[in-house]
Specification:
Layout: E1 2-5, H1 7-23, H2 25-41, E2 60-65, E3 68-75, E4 80-83, E5 87-88
Parallel strand pairs: 1-4
Antiparallel strand pairs: 2-3, 3-4, 3-5
C-alpha cells in the first residue's frame, strides 16, 4: 500500500517537531525517526491498530506513538493509506 500524508498532518508534525526541538533537538530527531518507522509499518498490516476513537468509520484507525495519535484512513480501492493528522490525545 502507498502511504500519503495530508497537508494537515505535515503542518501539525512540523509544529510538533519545532515544539519538541525547543527543549531538545536530539529528542525531536529521535521522535521523528520513531514516527516515520511506525508509519512505514502500516504498509504491512494496516488494520493492526484500533478503529479510531475520533471518527465513526471502520477504515479510519488510530496509530499511537508516544502519546500522540495519528488517525489514518485505509482506502483499499486505491491501495492507499492516508495519514490524516497528528495530535496529543485528548477527550473530543
Amino acid at each position: 500500500m502507498r502511504i500519503v500524508k495530508t497537508e494537515l498532518f505535515e503542518n501539525s508534525l512540523k509544529s510538533l517537531i519545532l515544539f519538541i526541538a525547543r527543549d531538545s533537538q536530539n529528542r525531536a530527531r529521535n521522535f521523528k525517526k520513531k514516527l516515520q518507522k511506525s508509519i512505514n509499518s502500516l504498509d504491512y498490516m494496516p488494520y493492526k491498530f484500533r478503529q479510531s476513537y475520533y471518527y465513526d468509520n471502520e477504515n479510519i484507525r488510530d496509530l499511537i506513538v508516544d502519546g500522540y495519535t495519528l488517525p489514518y484512513l485505509i482506502d483499499e480501492e486505491k491501495d492507499t493509506i492516508i495519514i490524516l493528522d497528528i495530535f496529543k490525545w485528548e477527550e473530543r
